[in-house]
Amino acid sequence: LGLALCVMSSTAFVYHDYCIIGAGPSGLQAAYFLQQAGRDYTVFERSHAPGSFFALYPRHRKLISINKRYTGKSNSEFNLRHDWNSLLSHDRRLLFKHYSHDFFPDADTMVHYLEDFAALLKLQVQYNTAIIHVTLEKDEQAWNGHYFLLTDQDRQNYKCSSLLVATGTWVPNVVNFPGSEYVEGYETVSINPEDFAGQTVLILGRGNSAFETAENILGVTNFIHMVSRSRVRLSWATHYVGDLRAINNGLLDTYQLKSLDGLLEGDLEDLAIVKDKKGKLHITLRFYLEDRNTSAGIDSITLPQDELDNFATRAPYDRVIRCLGWKFDFSIYNRSLKIMPGKGYKKKYPQINPNYESRSTQGLFVLGTASHSVDFRKSAGGFIHGFRYTTRAVHRLLENRHHGVPWPSTVYPITQLTNSIIKRVNEASGLYQMFSVLADIILLRENATAFEYLEEYPVGVLAELEMQTGRKAPSGLFVIIMEYGRNFSGDDKDVFYYNRAVGEAQHAWQSNFLHPVIYYYKRLPTEHEMKLRPPDWPLPRPDAIHHIVEDFLTDWTAPNAHILPLRRFLENCLSTDLRSFFAESCFLFTFTHQKLPPFCRQGYARMQGLLGSEGLRRHAVEAGLLEDYTPTDLGDRRPDSHRESQGQLLRDHVITVRPLQHLVNAKDE
Question: What SS3 state is found at 407?
Fold first, then answer.
């Protein structure tokens, strides 16, 4: 290693501000945003084409990411809620629906799509370049106090100020136990069902790759057993797309309907496999083999069925297949980067912060599937339809940190607060896919006369919002996020029980299905408060909270059930009136109130608003929103003069000062 470093020190480096390792979906997505911003970057890809993972996986070539081509709506942002394969770009040709008509597309189509994405957008990808070593070089002048030094398979060296790791998880998970040499891996096992005809098969694992493999051979085997340390988790119960999907769960039918196949739970590290003279594989337990010579033959080895004659796996198997998923490749990173695996069930991912930056190395960001530790088993950050948004969030963080470009925002008058929220919760795809992880932030201006709207910010770093975005939050804020009900998701949950949904606004807090939740804070939460937030809460306890009641159509536009309760919640938080008024109402306010509502102050008082017409006035009268001041006893005769018209109105209608609810002709949407 020392010799290698000496050689590196005497070799010229090719420099880029940003280096991206991996030209999979997340790497290409990051490259797109950097290119749109005009940044200096390059992407290193070990294969000859992008998306090399999809050239091999899934082995049986059917993706489980849905390709819903029709939604009944033309809103492109809304349609991305149901398009799980497209990357984000300005080019409408690069929507996945133009590449496949299948609801569950073929993996080869994904490879073709990624090739077009890189080519049509002219992304800077350096193919056939495998990065084999990454280390640090301290330098106070560098963006993060150090440079990243990369070496490829040809010993070409590169230097970068910021490193974006988009390699995914591609190293197969392997469990070592006595006899594991007889196990075939998912990555190499035959995908021809005829190779399994009349055989008895044991599958290690219980994820989608395991069930995908079982589905492929279900009709030709004697029977299939599947063993894993945990019980099967169904995605419709956990609401996590990485759990078992219905497209692959045929073995559950054959198990529960008594057709020989079955599922077992057990720690794989406790197993052992013994091969007999006929080539059959017998399952036993590791402790039976302790202090015994396995080469002496199976007859000298105690099997579980020797002591328990109805042992579940007493029948021998022809094949054992390992389908245990993948893990991150830590091998190429020097100790100086201190990249460490997570703990427990997150050990297959590197440790990162909620802003997707390495916990130990500033300037190193992890994107895509490898960043899934932030929301593992909670949201969609490990899949294209999730990490396309988290990658955009990382880019926005980098733009602010290194180039002084604040997080994109829009400033609106306070009268547009309700409409802005309703619009976003009904169409935003990032909030919908990355529920409980990304949120819209509304920063209130002084005296709540206006607000600044930030889209899809990572809630895990809410306490750092001002530093991370370049925006100020001096007067409080709203956080808009999507959530499932607190006790609705889980391995053992019955999500089809009777009365599983609520439909009335007063019970909105009991909503189970995905629905918008608005948190109100009088000040920005601190880091300490973020750490002390209640279990399973994405945010600390707010000063006020509002649930918009779940909707069967995910269409939160009902005037009484959705919009009116939201508006009243916002009014209570801001101590103001957010209703919209006709000009006549604003006119009456000027004579009866010392302070006009915001809509009148910012519209009518500034000579702004819709130009009235007889048709609009008549519609408002018929709807009960305006008083009808039309003379009723004059018939069709018009007054001879303006003075006569005024006199007639005074005689027919005596205007008195009434309570606010009678004076105001408001549109309670």
Answer: coil
CA distance linking residue 573 with residue 559, whole number of Å: 20
412, two tokens: 């609106």
Partners of 264 in the β-ladder = 227
Expressed in angstroms, the distance from the first to the final Cα of the chain is: 69
- Prediction pTM value: 0.88
Helix (H) or strand (E) holding 431: helix 429-433
Please tell me the number of Cα atoms within 13 Å of 117 on its side-chain side: 32
- Cα separation, 119 vs 115, in Å, equals 6
| Sequence-distant contacts of 491-497: CB under 8 A, at least 24 apart | 491/231, 491/233, 491/234, 491/237, 491/238, 492/237, 493/237, 493/238, 494/237, 495/236, 495/237
Structure tokens at 497: 């029980």
Task: Tell me how far apart the alpha carbons of residues 635 and 642 are, in angstroms, rounded to a whole number.
Answer: 17
Neighbours of 6 (CB within 10 A): 10
| Residues 644/645/651/655 CA torsion (nearest 10 deg) | -140
Question: Among candidates 441, 39, 9, which has minimal Cα distance to 31?
Answer: 39
The span from the CA of 189 to the CA of 207, in Å, is 16
Q: Are strands 41-44 and 125-126 parallel, antiparallel or unpaired?
A: parallel
Instruction: Give CA separation, 160 vs 29, 320, 418, in Å.
Output: 19, 45, 45
pLDDT in tens, 280-292: 999 888 877 765 6
The rounded percent of the chain whose pLDDT value lies above 90 is 72
Residues 206, 230: Cα–Cα separation, whole Å: 8
Per residue in 219-257, pLDDT (tens digit) is: 999 999 999 988 899 999 999 999 999 999 999 999 999
CA–CA gap between residue 478 and residue 451 (Å, rounded): 10
The backbone torsions φ and ψ at residue 643, rounded to the nearest 5 degrees and listed phi first, read -65, -45
Mean pLDDT of the chain: 89
- The domains found in the chain, sorted by start residue, are 14-171+327-399 (3.50.50.60), 180-324 (3.50.50.60), 409-559 (no CATH)
Residue 397 is inside which H or E element, if any? helix 384-403
Reported as a single tens digit per residue, the pLDDT across 157-203 is 999 999 999 999 999 999 998 889 999 999 999 999 999 999 999 99
Choose among 176, 172, 190: nearest CA to 318: 190
- How far apart (Å, rounded) are the C-alpha atoms in residues 37 and 450? 29
pLDDT of 276 reads 87
Give me the pLDDT at residue 291, please: 58
DSSP-derived letter for residue 561 is: I
Structure tokens at 448: 């709540």
43 phi and psi angles, rounded to 5 deg: -115, 130
- What φ, ψ does residue 546 adopt, rounded to 5°? -140, 130
pLDDT of residue 286: 82
Question: What whole-number distance in Å separates Cα of residue 267 and Cα of residue 250?
Answer: 24
